[in-house]
Amino acid sequence: MEKEDGTIIGGGAFLHLGKRNINSAVDIRKLGLNFIRENEENIEIGAAVTLREIEKSNLLNKYFDGILGKTVSCIMGVQIRNMATIGGTICGKYGFSDLLTTLLALNAQVVLYKIGIISLEEYLNGNIEKDILLRTEIKKGNINAKYLNLKNTSTDFSILNAAAANMDGKCRIAVGARPGSAKLCYKAMEYIDKEGINQESVKKAGEIAAEELKFGSDIRSSEKYRKDICSVLVKRALLEVEK
Amino acid sequence: MLSSGKKSTFRGGKMKISLNINNYIRNIDIEPGDVLYDVLNKLGYTSVRNSCDTGCCGTCTVLLDGEPVPSCSYLAVKADGKSITTIEGVKEEAEKINNYMLNEGAVQCGYCNPGFILTVIAMKNEIKDPTETDIKNYLVGNLCRCSGYVGHLRVIKKYLEAIK
Lengths: 243, 164
What we know:
The complex is a heterodimer.
Chain A: E1 6-9, E2 21-22, E3 24-27, E4 36-38, E5 42-46, H1 51-56, H2 58-62, H3 67-73, H4 78-81, H5 86-92, H6 99-105, E6 109-112, E7 116-119, H7 120-125, E8 133-139, E9 143-151, E10 158-167, E11 170-176, E12 183-184, H8 186-195, H9 199-212, H10 223-242
Parallel strand pairs in A: 1-3
Antiparallel strand pairs in A: 4-5, 5-8, 6-7, 6-8, 9-10, 10-11, 11-12
Helix pairs in contact in A: 8-9, 9-10
Chain B: E1 9-10, E2 15-21, E3 24-30, H1 36-42, E4 61-64, E5 67-70, E6 83-85, H2 91-103, H3 113-126, H4 132-138, H5 150-162
Parallel strand pairs in B: 2-6
Antiparallel strand pairs in B: 2-3, 4-5, 4-6
Helix pairs in contact in B: 2-3, 2-5
C-alpha cells in the first residue's frame, strides 16, 4: 500500500472502467470490515459492506427514514449492488455517486486506519494521504432525511442528486453528480436554519444552492440544466424532511 | 486478459484459485486481473455471455454463493473458494422458465436469457411472493433489446404461480 501505484481493491465494480496499470493490488476482504452495527451513539458500517447489504439491512432501514437503503436501491441493478461497497464508493470519491450525497447530508464520519476519525466532508474535500477506510459512522438522533435524483434511465448514473437531513431542527443539504463529487450547500443551509422550512424559504434555499455550487456539462446533461434542476431537487428534498 | 476493451491491467505472475462451479471443484491458474467471465469462458461455460462489459446489462450474470453478480466485472481472484452457479448448473429449472419465455413471446435472439433466468432464480430464492414492484426492481439490471419487458413480467408471474 505504501507503493505509489499500490491499489486497495474495494468491491471492484468500477475498476473495470479504468485504464490504470496496477502493479500491486491489495485485497482487504479478510480484515473483518463487513459489518453493520449500532452502539449507543452511532450507526457503524464497515468498509466492505456492499450496497445490496445496506439496502437489505433491517437496522439501517430503522434509522434516518431508511434513506440509506432508499438511496442505494436506485443504483444500477442488483448485480452491481451485490459487488460495489460503501468503502469503494467513499474512497473512489466518485462524482456520480448517489451514496456520498446522502452520507454528506447525514454528517457521516469516516474512520481511517492511520488518520483516525474525520468527517466525510473533510475526507472528500481535503488532500488526505493514502489510507485504509475501516468504517463509516453516523450519529443517531432525531433525523428526518430525504434523497432525490434525476436520471435519464433508471439504471443510468444520476444527472443530479440531492439529499437533505433535518437533524433536530438543523438542516444539512448536499448535492452530487454535478457531475463533480457531492458538496454541501453552506449558504442554503445557513439560510434555511435562519428562516425555517416553509413553502417560500425552500424555494429560495433551492435557488441559493444552485447559485453557490459549481456545475458542469457531460454526456448526460448540460451545466445549465443541472443548475436548474438543483433548485428543484433541493426545494423538494427540504419539503419532504419537514413532513 | 482475454476480454478486449479499455480496462485496468494488472501485472504479476499466475495465481492459483479454487472455484466450486455448479458443484464441481475446479483448481485453476489465472492472471491477477482476469474477471470471472474470462475464466468461465476459458473453462467452456459458454452460456455466460458478455455484452456491455461494464456490469450494467445483466447478460453476464452468474450466481456467486446464490447472489447475482456481473461476471464481466467481478475479479476472478475474489471468487476464490466461492460457489458459482451458471445456467448449466440449473438446467432443469432453466428449461422450465425458458418454456414460459417461448410461450409468452419474451424471447427473440436469446442472448440475454441465461443472465435473466439466473436472476429470476436468485429473486425466487431471496424474496417470498414478490410483488410486481419487487420483480421490476430486482430485474432492472437485466436488459433485453429484442422483446421488451412486458413479456418478461408475464413469464415471471406465471412461473412463480406455477411453482407455488
